[in-house]
Design a protein that fits this description.
Elements: H1 2-23, H2 28-66, H3 79-95, H4 97-106, H5 115-121, H6 133-143, H7 149-152, E1 153-156, E2 162-163, E3 167-174, H8 176-183, H9 186-190, H10 199-213, E4 224-230, H11 234-253, H12 263-277, H13 280-293, E5 300-301, E6 314-318, E7 323-324, H14 325-329, H15 337-358, E8 361-362, E9 370-382, E10 385-390, H16 394-405, H17 411-423, E11 426-432, E12 438-439, H18 443-457, H19 461-470, H20 481-502, H21 507-520, H22 527-546, H23 552-563
Parallel strand pairs: 5-11
Antiparallel strand pairs: 1-3, 2-3, 3-4, 4-6, 7-9, 8-12, 9-10, 9-11
Protein name: ABC1-domain-containing protein
GO molecular function: ATP binding; protein kinase activity
Organism: Candida tenuis (strain ATCC 10573 / BCRC 21748 / CBS 615 / JCM 9827 / NBRC 10315 / NRRL Y-1498 / VKM Y-70) (Yeast)
Length: 569
């Protein structure tokens, strides 16, 4: 939260300083002009734009509300409800970036929304159009001290390789002369993570830089990088939408029986999530920290951020030439038992490290943000230390990736190629992307999570139910608390019997049923806590596609026993 607070403070300070400088001009006419301009902007133009946006959203969402009775059709098979959920997704896509992100965030809130709605919202895609290359040049040039585009880049692919609701991504090569100019300027490098002039913040970000960044390799000449650029004016548009969301959240919260949803608090949480993504320096810092946390894991990779080239609106990072995990999952056959299990194990083990050891968790884990590369390795053991050393170089790894990406869309051909790779001694490297949002549990939530998981691992369902209510955000809003605890106890007992009978337990099935109970009994859990549960659900789903025999519950228990001491965190 320190980076978030500093980022918010910085932009408020910049606006204030910009206005103050103009309003204190020595030219009387300039002062009068800017004073009039700001008043018209604040009290006339901005309210008109906000009202117009409100009317636009009403035209999109009012028909949605009026069509709610369709949910009553064929309630047994939920035919009408599924159709209405699809309408919600379509409306969010039409409404723009803020509501696409809101829908994607809502998809993680199975504690307050029906399962079918969450599943439909998981399919939300951005319909954002790419902003013009002219706007990109303007934003990038301003971020690099108004250097000309030709001075900065040796090559720049004008067609974006990806367009999202908030930003778009290009491929480029930065000019060697410009690299030298920037990296020689130590003050420029040291200033990248300083968000304001507060001495405490400067000291903190200097230590971050020394710990996570300076140890990394510098940007090399002729190296292809990914350039992430925010859409122009996206921050202003999102801030306006957040005002409207807050207004309607307060209105709904005033309705009797709706208080348990705590919608104003949810809007506050969503605002934090959005603002974290509107400052690309934060994503750069997250990448640097993940790389530091996994520096001893050569088979887990996060793109290298180049923070001396990164600003609020532009992120420069290593380009990941890898195979999308979605592609491997689309191969319905098991693409080699050993290799698929290896991908599953490494992905899950990395998540357990984020959760249990580091308390720094990628909060947007799905197949689209995970990629796979293949490399050869050698092993050696020295003084009880067992390490993996890559014997294949980057060019060899990239060559193998290119061969895969050029293969025809033939499952048998892919399976044969993967099978051959494994027998040639190649292993999987998991690459994680898009780390703009991370979850860090505070001390209280961390202890609550551990206590709850211990109760579940001991199959003490009644205690788990009591803990969920006692340590929820609003314990008094829960209804039928005794019945809730008994339901959890019954569910856990049923799962215990299945575990002893089948040998493994689907933690995903357990969590989905718990979320249904939480929703029915108005048990309000913390957003970060729910984010972790959703990540567990997604990862178990991915893991079971790759390794049907996966027992995530057993892996959790093992990690908790051998790698985690709650008193030290």
């Amino acid at each position: 939260m320190g980076l978030y607070s500093a980022s918010c403070h910085e932009i408020s300070e910049q606006i204030h300083q910009s206005r103050s400088a103009r309003l204190q001009s020595s030219n009387v006419f300039a002062r009068i002009w800017y004073n009039l301009k700001y008043k018209i902007s604040d009290y006339v133009i901005d309210p008109i734009i906000t009202f117009t946006r409100c009317v636009e959203l009403a035209c999109i969402f009012l028909p949605l509300l009026l069509s709610y009775p369709i949910c009553l059709y064929d309630r047994k098979r939920q035919t009408g409800a599924k159709l209405w959920y699809r309408y919600i997704r379509w409306s969010a896509e039409i409404a723009g970036a803020s509501f696409i992100k809101l829908g994607q965030w809502a998809a993680t809130r199975a504690d307050i929304l029906p399962k079918g709605m969450c599943e439909e919202l998981n399919n939300l895609h951005s319909n954002s159009k790419a902003h013009s290359f002219h706007q990109t040049k303007k934003i990038v040039s301003a971020s690099f001290g108004n250097h000309s585009f030709e001075e900065i880049f040796e090559e720049f692919n004008e067609t974006p390789v990806g367009v999202g609701a908030i930003a778009q991504v290009y491929l480029a090569k930065i000019n060697q002369k410009f690299i030298k100019e920037v990296t020689d300027d130590e003050e420029k490098i040291a200033s990248q993570l300083k968000f304001n002039k507060n001495p405490d913040n400067q000291s903190r970000y200097k230590s971050i830089l020394e710990k996570f960044i300076i140890q990394d390799d510098p940007l090399k000449s002729n190296q292809q990088v990914a350039i992430k650029v925010l859409h122009p004016n996206v921050e202003v548009k999102i801030r306006r939408d957040l005002k409207l969301m807050r207004f309607f959240a307060n209105f709904i919260n005033a309705i009797p029986t709706m208080e348990w949803l705590s919608l104003p608090d949810e809007v506050d949480q969503f605002e934090i999530l959005m603002r974290l993504q509107l400052d690309l320096r934060i994503e750069g810092y997250n990448l640097a920290k993940f790389r530091y946390n996994f520096k001893d894991k050569p088979d887990i990779h996060f793109p290298k951020p180049y923070l001396s080239f990164t600003s609020r609106c532009v992120l420069v990072e290593e380009y990941m030439h890898a195979i999308p995990l979605e592609k491997l999952l689309s191969i319905h056959k098991n693409f080699g038992q050993n290799l698929s299990k290896e991908v599953s194990d490494k992905g899950l083990d990395s998540f357990l490290q984020m959760l249990i050891l580091d308390n720094f968790i990628h909060a947007d884990l799905h197949p689209g943000n995970m990629m796979v590369r293949f490399y050869k390795n050698t092993h050696y053991q020295h003084k009880k230390e067992y390490k993996i050393i890559k014997s294949s170089n980057e060019s060899e790894t990239n060559k193998i990736t290119e061969e895969f990406l050029n293969l025809p869309d033939d499952q048998d051909l892919w399976c044969e190629k993967l099978h051959d790779l494994y027998h040639q001694g190649y292993h999987a490297e998991i690459c994680f992307l898009d780390v703009g949002i991370v979850t860090e549990l505070n001390q209280v939530d961390r202890v609550n999570f551990i206590d709850l998981f211990k109760a579940l691992s001991d199959f003490d369902g009644y205690k788990a139910g009591e803990l969920m209510i006692e340590r929820s955000r609003t314990p008094d809003s829960a209804i039928d608390t005794e019945l809730f605890a008994m339901k959890v106890e019954k569910l856990v007992d049923r799962m215990k019997q299945r575990t002893f009978a089948l040998g493994n337990l689907s933690i995903g099935d357990l969590l989905e049923q718990v979320m249904t109970m939480v929703r029915k009994h108005h048990v309000r859990m913390e957003g970060d806590f729910i984010s972790i549960l959703v990540a567990i659900l997604l990862l178990e789903g991915i893991g079971r596609q790759l390794d049907p025999g996966l027992d995530l519950f057993a892996r959790f228990v093992y990690a908790m026993i051998f790698d985690y001491d709650v008193e030290n965190y």
